[in-house]
Each structure stands twice: as structure tokens, then as C-alpha cells.
Design goal:
Strand order of the largest sheet of chain A: 1-2
Order of helices and strands of chain B: EHHHEEHHHHHHHHHHHHHHHHHH
Structural class of chain A: mainly alpha
Radius of gyration of chain A: 22 Å
Largest sheet of chain B: 3 strands, antiparallel
Structural class of chain B: mainly alpha
Number of helices of chain B: 21
Helix content of chain A: over 70%
Distance between the termini of chain B: 38 Å
Shape of chain B: globular
Number of strands of chain A: 2
Distance between the termini of chain A: 7 Å
Shape of chain A: globular
Helix content of chain B: over 70%
Largest interface: A-B, 34 and 37 residues
Oligomer: heterodimer
Number of helices of chain A: 21
Number of domains of chain B: 1
């Protein structure tokens, strides 16, 4: 396997990161130049800047050719394929929406440094989506993580934020170290750092199961932490609750999406099912190891996330447990990708993450507006929201229906595709566990809807105002959730399917 | 990519949706405009539905049925998610055309009856229209993904309507119970549907959710092959119970009927009308279309025991209805009982019984809508539904009393009204037994299982007569307590229009069944031929 050295293709492969670096520097420069009053508009620069980058990636960020060797660029560090493109778009959109949401947080919205760190974090996520080398995987993961530690603890005067930052850092550093150990074992076993070469060397190396299980297990700790799969989820509720809400939004969307993106690529490349290796002989199949691992993680994650969400009284904590459950649903797809050659599983994950990014941004956006207006994050205080601002209540309802998997929101098609992939891969029991969980989940989502619409509150006559950046952020997210569930299903599914097929091309 | 597009059905589907969007864009205070827009959009949908109903070509359907094919009229077929095998495919056959009409009828009269709702009128009308659109979608869907999409779509406005505008005492509990029951049923059915999709795809090489495709696969015997590997139970026999009972939850099949009386009672009047009148048929319809028609061999095996569940529905539902003090609960349980007759009709597995079941779906839909409308009108004036404390309302509300009595006669199966036309064939069908030779021979041997079911089921009719007459006697006749119920006002013009429209169809189908029966028969015929007739 050779790596392409085409200079133009190499630049195109990291074009989003280059653009975002420029954007980060521009935001910092404007922070110096602009007066304090004007600095309120920095969020527009950062937010619409990122959305513009997302649009550019969407339009011209496709792969350079069909051959894998054309797509492995920069010494094999980056695989520039459609899968990388779709995950990059969703990560960058999530970042852009987070920037717009930050404009409503009074102590953060004038700080150019905050936006710059946020953009760097998105760069990490974007690189992670395309990483094809153990070193690149780790570097991108750390770029994403370290900036997120910072962002979570950005409100230093706020005890909860500091606690969240520190907690996230301690857990994160610990799991990163374990994952790094796993990655280094893979290098030790194979002498390769490119994940595709690692996969081939492992398959033909005759190592036996034990060392591979060890490496896989250690790496799972790192990725499990990032996607908040049980039992690596302990940080999630505390950090989600304590971090500034735009950061929570970023954590639950961009960070999770990018991690799933790299997880798919990594598992299929480093521990491939033998059919994908083509002409090689005497290959060993390690794929069933991670399929079983994913099945177990998926069942535990969605069940625990949903059950614990039932008893929450704080909306951010509830969304935290809900996001754990959502990671569990997504892991159903991960379990399906090894046996399902048509790419349905990977396509389902790409679709699901895309709609999830928009849905969660929408939900957190409403939460910020609500918390700013009332100073409360308790679910009970959402009472009367439908009378205080009907549009806001409708937006939240749309987000919750999407998370619950009810049409016309995009979550319905997302869950449908995941279960379809699971049944295609012969995992009928897993799909059944999944649908039972969907029902449990729907219960607590509907309870929130009920509180917003049915219960009365003494503050009903005080409307909740929506500022311009929020109109934009919520409008974009809500339109996305609604359209991706109805008339725009097809383009996204086609795109995700194309992306998924590129994953299965290894050599 | 457009394959065929006649537009009538899409028009029926979109008018309520567009109405809902316009209503949501109105400002908060424009209640009257919201009502008018709702009435207009359901009115247009009703006119289109009448056009579809009377424009349905029965001869063409019978010609297709001779080849065992289901004929879909007014097809709209557009590719949607091609790579997954999903297309936006609408069409009506002989069974669904009357259902579309029923939905339109209940939707339009529901809006008229909700005219006086003052609390967040805008949202009420918008959600109501979305609910109606969702129900339309299910009846018109030919692609089973689309069917499922609309099935789920109709659940959430339902939840809203009950929880926000429902009866204060039980709405929270009832709305959640209803939603979870229906959802559990539907996801179980979804897994079954996916199993069929993959089995048909493996065998034919074309992965598609289109009913026409799956039906061809079913006729080619794809689902009669073993589900796991080379041995064991066939796909049809394994998945039939999941699909039939999964959808049957919404049809109120015993022992999963429990959500329905609670839901009916807690819902505001118009929603009860849609809910009991139309939504429950949605379950029965989907169970028939996806269950019986795609998996005839599963039906042959499982319906003989499922018919026993429906018998419990009929008799037990009627008995419980008889014991209720709450006016609305009586009607709620009577729906359980009558929907049992629908499922029982399907389980007869012959042309007469299944046609009767199809007629019963329409007849019961209109009748229950009428009942709930009457209950709502009485309750709005008396502020109680306790039967013993009501009385003499015939003098104050003569229109309501007449309408209720006609509805009562329908539910007892009086000749000359639609109830007779529907229930009589069901019992005849039961007596005839299935069109094929059932497997355990005791089903039709010297001890005639089906005839025995028929004999016991007739008890349900007798009990029905008892509770209906009891209500008529205690609520509408007897002494009117002027002190207890001061200032009872007459019903509005809108209410009268709604009652007349509903009664009209009960009488029309009763005295001239040809308006509907041949159509339903043409839809049932291909199913019967698949069952072996």
C-alpha cells in the first residue's frame, strides 16, 4: 500500500482544518482590535465562519479519487474519503451552532479566546474524523479533548464549571493514557502505525486472541469515554450539568460524532473481517471480538442511560443520560457493521449522528434560553413554557420527539435505519432490546413535553425573548431536524450510504 | 422519480397539514380564524374523500382480484429513499377507501364539535389536523414504511390533545398509557415488518417496503420458507403473532385493550371521536394488511386461537360496559366490544365474514363518533357523566337524544341501519367457517368451533342492547332535574350539522348497503384467495 503524495490533494485533504485555523486566528485578531461593545458580534464571525467552512466541505470536500491509495494522504495520516467528509460536516456544524449559542451566555460572549479555543476543538474533531494513523488518531483525540477540558472549566468564578472542567480533565487524562497504551501495543505487535497496515499485519501475524483482546479492550476505554458508553460514562452527568451550556452542547454533539466517526474507521481498518482483506491468505478474524464488545456495551449503555434518565429533575442531567442512551443506540449500528457488507450499519450511524448533532444543539439551545430567562434548569420550572413562548416550546418538542424517534422528526428515520441494520446483520435480539429502550426513552421525553404544555406556572404571563443569534441557531437546527426527517431524507441517506461504502474499501 | 401521480390522495393528505401550518402561523388571539381554517381544510379533505369513495372502480378491483391481486386506485407513487427501497406510494383499495371517507367525516365533524374550545384554540386545531393527516396517511399508504411513518406520526398529536385538553382527572395517566401501549405494539410489529422485508429481499433480490412487492413475494411463497436456516418454523408462522397482535393493540384486542377506555374517556370530545372512531380501525386495518394479507399461512395457523381473544373482547367488553356508571366509560368499553367484532370478522377467514368486518369498521367508526359527540354535548351542559344522576335530557336536547338513539340501534344491530348490515355477515361468516380446511380437525369437526364462537358472541349483542337501552332510559328519559342542571342550552348549529352528517351515513349504509359492500368485498377478495378460497 502506497500513500499518495499529490500536493494539491494533500492540501484539499486538510482544507477544512486550514480554513478553521485561519478563522481562529481571525477571531483572536478581531478580539484585540474590536471595542468591547463590538466584541459581542465575535460569535457571529466564529459561528457563521464555521458554518461557511461546513458548507465548503459539503460542496468541495469530497474524496480525490475512488482508489484507497489516492485517498491516503500526508504519509497515510489522513484518509480523505466520503466518510471523513460527512463526519467533518456534522462536527463543524455542531461547532458553528455552539458558537451562536455562546452569544447568549453573558460572561463568555465577549471573549474571543473562548471562540478560538472552541474552533481549535472543532479542528481536533474534524481531524479525528479523517485520521488513519495511530499517531494521528491520538493527536486529534487530544486536540479535541484538551480544548474541551478548558472549555468545560471556562467560567472560573463558577464553582460548578470549575468542578466540571477538573472532573472531565481527570477522567479524560486517565482514559486517554489507557487508550494510548492500547495503541502502543498495536504498534508493538505490528510495527506499523497506519491503521490499514496495522489491520493487515494483525490479520496475518498469527498472534492469537489474547494480545488483541488486551489492545482492543484498552482502546475501548478511551473511545468509550469519548462517546460516554457505560461503564465509562460517570463523568457525563456532572460535566454536562456544570459546564457552560454551549460547551455541553459541543460535548454531546461534535465530540461524540467525531469519536463515532473514528471508531467506525478504526475498528474496520485495524480489526477487519477477513472478507475485506481480499487476496491475503491465512488471515485471522478478530472482528467478532469487537462485535461482541459492541453488543454488550450497547445493551448496557442504552438501558442504563434510559433508566437513570427516568429519575432526573435537572434538564441538563436528563439530557446527559439521554445522550448516554443515544450512544447506546448508535452502538447497535457499530455492532452491525462487521457482518453487514452493504454498509447499512455505517450509513445508519452517519445518518443518526448527523440528525443527533442538530437535535441536541436544538435542545441545548432551548435550555440556555430558558435558563437565562428564569435562572433555573429544573424540569418542573419548564411549566407553562408553551404559554410563555409557543415557538420555543414547539422547538423543544421537536427536539424531544427526534430523540424519542417519532416522525416527522429525523430521529424516526435514524432509529429505523439503525434497527434495520441490526436485523440485516442478524442481531434481532439486540434490535428488540433497542426498541424496548426506545419506549422507555419516550416516557421521559414525553414527561418534559407534558410539563411544558400542560402544567401551569405563576410566571406564565412573562414571555421569554429570543435574541437574533438564537433565532439563527435554533432555526437552522429545527429546520434541519424537520427536513432531514421528511423531504431531505433521501440526499442524506444517499450520502451516508456512499460514505459507508468507502469504509469497506481497505486496500 | 415520479412513477404515477394522480394527486387526489396527496391532496387529502396535504390539506390538513397545510391547514395546520397556516394555523400555527396565525397570531395567538385569532381563535375564530383558526376554527374556520380547520373547518375549511377538513371540509376540502372530505370533498376529496367523497370523490375518491364514489370514484373507486369496483369492477377493475374485481378483475384484479380474479388474479389474486389487490387493486390500488388513485395511486401516487414517487421514489423516496431508493437505496433502502422506500417510496412514497399511496393508493386506496376496497377496504381503505371507506376508511378514508370515515376519517374525513370524523375529522370534519370533529372540528365542528370543537368550535367552542377557547383554551389555546390555535394549537388544538393544529394538532387535531396533524392527527387527521397522520390517520389519512396510514389508510392510504401502500409502501409499508410510509404506513409505519404515519402510524407513528399520529401518536404524538394524540398525546398532546389528550394531555392538554383532556379530562383533568385522568388525562395525564391516560395519555401516557395510551402512547406507550400503542408504541410497544407498533415497534413489535416494526421488527416483524423488517423481518419480512429482509426475507423478501433475500429471495427476490429486491429490497423494498412496497406492499405490492411484498405481496408478490408472499404469493410466491417466500414467507413459507423456514426463517432460521433450513429447518424450523416458517417466517409466516413465526412473525404473524407479532405483527397481528402488535397492530392489534391499537384495535383494542384483549388483553391489550386496557388503554382504550381510559384514553377515550380522558380525551376531549373531538379526539375521542377520532380516537375510537378511526384510530382503532387503523390497528385493525394494519393487522389485516400487513398480517393476514402478507402472511396467510401464519393467519391460518394463529387466527383460530386469536379468534378466542376477540370473543373475550366482544362479551367481556360488553359486560364491563354494562357495569359502568360513567356515561363515557360505557361508550369506551362498547368500543372494545365492537372492535372485537371487527377482529372476529377478520378471523373468520372467509369472504362474508371479512366483508362484514370491513363494513363494521366503517359503521362502528361513524357510530362511535356519534356516541362520543352526544356524550360530549351532554357533559358540557350537565358537567357530570354519572348515569344515575342524569335524566330527562331528551326534553332539553332532542337532537342529541334522537342521534344517540339511532346510534344505539346501530350498535344493537337493528335492521335498516348500518350495524345490521355489518354484524349479520360476521355471524354468517362465523357459521360458515374458514375457506380452507383448518389443520386441527376439531375446529370444523363434529364439534363446530366457529359455530360455538358465534353462539357465544351473540351474547355480546344482547348485552349491548341492555346497556344501550339503560343509558337511553336513564340519561334521556325520566325526570329532568331543573335545580341540579340549571340553564341547559340547546346545541349549536355546528353541532346539529355534525350529528346529521354522521346519522346520514349510518342510515344510508343501512338501507342501501350496495353503496359500500361491493367495494369492501372487492378489497377482501384477494385476501381470501390468498387464504385458499
Amino acid at each position: 500500500m502506497n500513500f499518495s503524495t499529490d500536493v494539491q490533494a494533500s492540501i484539499m485533504a486538510i482544507l477544512p482544518e486550514i480554513l478553521m485555523t485561519v478563522l481562529a486566528i481571525a477571531v483572536l485578531a478581531l478580539d484585540l482590535v474590536w471595542s468591547r461593545a463590538r466584541r459581542r458580534d465575535l460569535g457571529y464571525v466564529a459561528g457563521f465562519g464555521l458554518l461557511a467552512v461546513a458548507l465548503i466541505v459539503l460542496l468541495v470536500g469530497g474524496p480525490p479519487g475512488d482508489e484507497t491509495s489516492d485517498q491516503l494522504l500526508l504519509g497515510g495520516m489522513i484518509r480523505h474519503d466520503t466518510m471523513a467528509q460527512i463526519f467533518r460536516v456534522m462536527v463543524i456544524v455542531a461547532g458553528g451552532l455552539s458558537c451562536l449559542l455562546t452569544m447568549g451566555v453573558s460572561r463568555l460572549n465577549v471573549r474571543g479566546d473562548f471562540y478560538a479555543v472552541l474552533i481549535v476543538s472543532v479542528i481536533g474533531g474534524s481531524l479525528l474524523s479523517a485520521a488513519a494513523d495511530l499517531i494521528m488518531v491520538f493527536l486529534a483525540l487530544e486536540t479535541l479533548s484538551i480544548t474541551l477540558y478548558l472549555l468545560a472549566g471556562y467560567l472560573r468564578e463558577d464553582v460548578r464549571s470549575s468542578e466540571a472542567g477538573l472532573k472531565y480533565f481527570l477522567f479524560g487524562a486517565f482514559t486517554s493514557a489507557i487508550a494510548l497504551y492500547g495503541l502502543s501495543l498495536l504498534y508493538g505487535f505490528t510495527g506499523e502505525t497506519n491503521i490499514y497496515r496495522v489491520g493487515r499485519a494483525l490479520a496475518t501475524g498469527g498472534l492469537g486472541d489474547a494480545p488483541v483482546v488486551l489492545a482492543l479492550g484498552l482502546i475501548t476505554v478511551g473511545f468509550g469515554f469519548k462517546v460516554s458508553a457505560v461503564p465509562f460514562h460517570f463523568w457525563t452527568p456532572d460535566v454536562y450539568e456544570g459546564a457552560p451550556t454551549p460547551v455541553t452542547s459541543l460535548l454531546s454533539t461534535a465530540s461524540k460524532a467525531a469519536s463515532f466517526g473514528v471508531l467506525l474507521r478504526f475498528l474496520l481498518a485495524a480489526f477487519p473481517p477477513p472478507e475485506l482483506l481480499g487476496s491475503l491468505e491465512n488471515v485471522q478474524d478478530y472482528s467478532q471480538l469487537w462485535v461482541q464488545l459492541a453488543v454488550v456495551l450497547s445493551v448496557v449503555t442504552m438501558t442504563l442511560g434510559n433508566v437513570l434518565a427516568l429519575v432526573q429533575t435537572n434538564i441538563k442531567r436528563l439530557l446527559a443520560y439521554s445522550s448516554i442512551a443515544q450512544a447506546g443506540y448508535t452502538l447497535i449500528g457499530v455492532a452491525a457493521i462487521a457482518t453487514d457488507r452493504s454498509g447499512d450499519g455505517a450509513a445508519a450511524i452517519a445518518f443518526y449522528m448527523f440528525m443527533y448533532v442538530l437535535t441536541n444543539s436544538l435542545a441545548f439551545g432551548v435550555v440556555i434560553l430558558f435558563a437565562n430567562a428564569t435562572g433555573s434548569e429544573r424540569i418542573a420550572d419548564l411549566a407553562g413554557l408553551s404559554r410563555r413562548n409557543p415557538g420555543l416550546a414547539l422547538a423543544m418538542t421537536l427536539a424531544l420527539l427526534s430523540l424519542g424517534g417519532i416522525p416527522p422528526a429525523a430521529g424516526f428515520v435514524g432509529k429505523f435505519l439503525l434497527f434495520r441494520a441490526a436485523i440485516d446483520a442478524g442481531l434481532v435480539a439486540l434490535a428488540l432490546v433497542g426498541v424496548v429502550n426506545v419506549i422507555i426513552g419516550l416516557y421521559y421525553y414525553l414527561v418534559i413535553v407534558k410539563v411544558m404544555y400542560m402544567e401551569r406556572s405563576p410566571d406564565e404571563d412573562q414571555p421569554i425573548p429570543v435574541s437574533t443569534p438564537y433565532t439563527w441557531a435554533l432555526g437552522i437546527a429545527a429546520a434541519g431536524v424537520l427536513l432531514l426527517g421528511t423531504i431531505l431524507v433521501t440526499p442524506l441517506v444517499e450520502w451516508a450510504t456512499e460514505a459507508a461504502q468507502s469504509l469497506y474499501v481497505l486496500l | 422519480m415520479v412513477i404515477t401521480f394522480s394527486g387526489a390522495l396527496t391532496g387529502i393528505l396535504l390539506t390538513p397539514v397545510i391547514g395546520a401550518i397556516i394555523i400555527l402561523l396565525l397570531n395567538k388571539e385569532s381563535r375564530e380564524q383558526a376554527r374556520i381554517i380547520a373547518a375549511m381544510s377538513t371540509g376540502i379533505a372530505l370533498l376529496l374523500a367523497l370523490g375518491v369513495f364514489f370514484g373507486y372502480d369496483v369492477d377493475a378491483a374485481n378483475a384484479a382480484a380474479a388474479n389474486g391481486e389487490t387493486y390500488f386506485a388513485f395511486e401516487d407513487h414517487v421514489q423516496w429513499i431508493e437505496s433502502v427501497g422506500i417510496s412514497y406510494h399511496l393508493g386506496v383499495d376496497g377496504i381503505s377507501a371507506p376508511m378514508v371517507l370515515l376519517t374525513a367525516l370524523a375529522g370534519f365533524t370533529g372540528v365542528l364539535i370543537s368550535w367552542k374550545i377557547e383554551d389555546r384554540t390555535r394549537e388544538f386545531m393544529a394538532f387535531f389536523l396533524l392527527l387527521v393527516a397522520g390517520v389519512f396517511g396510514v389508510f392510504m399508504a401502500v409502501d409499508l414504511f410510509v404506513l409505519f411513518f404515519f402510524y407513528e406520526l399520529s401518536i404524538f398529536p394524540m398525546y398532546f390533545l389528550i394531555v392538554i385538553w383532556g379530562w383533568v382527572k385522568t388525562r395525564e395517566y391516560a395519555a401516557m398509557k395510551l402512547t406507550l401501549y400503542i408504541l410497544i405494539g407498533s415497534v413489535v410489529a416494526l421488527i416483524g415488518l423488517l423481518a419480512l422485508y429482509f426475507k423478501a429481499g433475500e429471495a427476490t433480490g429486491v429490497y423494498s417496503f412496497d406492499f405490492v412487492h411484498l405481496n408478490e413475494a408472499a404469493r410466491a411463497g417466500v414467507f413459507d420458507l423456514p426463517f432460521f436456516g433450513d429447518s424450523g418454523v416458517t417466517t409466516a408462522r413465526l412473525w404473524f403473532p407479532a405483527i397481528f397482535i402488535g397492530f392489534g393493540v391499537l384495535a383494542g384486542i384483549w388483553p391489550f385493550h386496557n388503554w382504550s377506555p381510559d384514553g377515550h374517556v380522558a380525551a376531549p370530545t373531538a379526539v375521542s371521536m377520532i380516537h375510537a372512531g378511526v384510530l382503532m380501525k387503523l390497528g385493525a386495518f394494519a393487522a389485516l394488511r400487513v398480517g393476514v394479507q402478507l402472511l396467510p399461512d401464519g393467519a391460518r395457523m394463529h387466527l383460530p386461537w386469536i379468534i378466542f381473544l376477540t370473543l373475550i373482547n366482544v362479551v367481556y367488553g360488553a359486560l364491563i360496559a354494562f357495569r359502568q356508571r360513567d356515561f363515557k366509560y360505557v361508550i369506551g368499553f362498547s368500543s372494545v366490544s365492537h372492535m372485537g367484532l371487527v377482529s372476529m370478522g377478520f378471523a373468520t377467514m372467509n369472504l362474508t365474514g371479512m366483508t362484514g368486518a370491513g363494513l363494521q369498521m366503517f359503521s362502528h367508526g361513524v357510530m362511535t363518533a356519534l356516541f362520543f359527540a352526544c356524550v360530549g354535548m351532554v357533559y358540557d351542559r350537565a358537567h357530570t357523566r354519572d348515569i344515575p344522576s342524569l335524566g330527562g335530557f331528551a326534553r332539553k336536547l332532542p337532537w342529541v337524544a334522537v342521534a344517540f338513539i339511532i346510534g344505539g340501534f346501530v350498535s344493537m344491530g337493528m335492521p335498516g341501519l348500518s350495524g345490521f348490515v355489518a354484524e349479520f355477515p360476521i355471524f354468517v361468516g362465523l357459521w360458515d367457517g374458514p375457506v380452507f380446511e383448518p389443520d386441527p380437525d376439531w375446529l370444523t369437526g363434529s364439534f363446530n368451533y366457529y359455530a360455538a364462537i358465534a353462539i357465544v358472541a351473540v351474547l355480546g349483542i344482547i348485552i349491548t342492547a341492555a346497556y344501550v337501552l339503560r343509558i337511553v332510559g336513564q340519561v334521556f328519559f325520566g325526570e329532568f332535574n331543573e335545580e341540579r342542571f340549571p340553564g341547559v342550552t340547546a346545541i349549536s348549529l355546528y353541532d346539529k350539522i355534525a350529528l346529521v352528517m354522521l346519522v346520514f351515513w349510518l342510515v344510508l349504509v343501512g338501507i342501501y348497503p350496495r353503496v359500500m359492500a361491493p367495494m369492501i368485498e372487492s378489497g377482501v377478495r384477494p385476501i381470501v384467495s390468498m387464504l385458499g378460497g
